[in-house]
Design a protein that fits this description.
The protein is of the alpha/beta class. The protein has a single domain, classed as 3-Layer(aba) Sandwich (Rossmann fold). It is built from three helices and seven strands; from the N terminus they run βαβαββββαβ. The longest helix has 17 residues.
Length: about 140
């Protein structure tokens, strides 16, 4: 069964939210968890792709945009707009406004919300969907 963690940031900044996402991605990678990052559109995917190259000078996180073609190696972070491919369903970092497709097949879903109503409203809908599905949810309030 899936497990969902909501990270609620004190900031209203989308840039702070994306930076926090990069930190979570890095933490997952260092724990040998090669996650899938779900975005709403290709522009958001490209933005996260670029940030992973620049958010920390001393960091290297192998990652690529997912276009339906699986990478040659499995120890890569994938970023995309569709369902997480087989092999990347252990952990999904959800930066989109919707629940991941087939979320019951995902072991861990990490949701990041900032303190902006535009982000919080779809987050509340996703929270409700997970709750109705009987998925355990934890919430972490992050001061940033």
């Amino acid at each position: 069964m899936a497990e969902v963690s909501f990270y609620v940031l004190s900031s209203e900044s989308l840039d702070k939210r994306d930076e926090f996402a990069c930190k979570l991605i890095e933490k997952a990678y260092r724990s040998e968890c090669y996650c899938y990052v779900l975005t709403d559109d290709t522009a958001q995917s490209h933005k996260i792709n670029e940030l992973l190259w620049t958010f920390r000078a001393s960091s290297f996180i192998p990652h690529q945009l997912y276009d339906g073609t699986l990478p040659e190696f499995k120890n890569v972070i994938l970023i995309g707009t569709g369902a997480a491919p087989t092999g990347w369903q252990h952990t999904v970092i959800n930066l989109s406004t919707k629940c991941p497709q087939d979320f019951s097949n995902i072991q861990r879903i990490l949701e990041i919300l900032d303190n902006n109503e535009t982000t919080k409203m779809p987050g509340r809908r996703r929270y409700s969907q997970y709750q109705k599905a009987g998925i355990p949810i934890t919430t972490h309030h992050i001061n940033n």
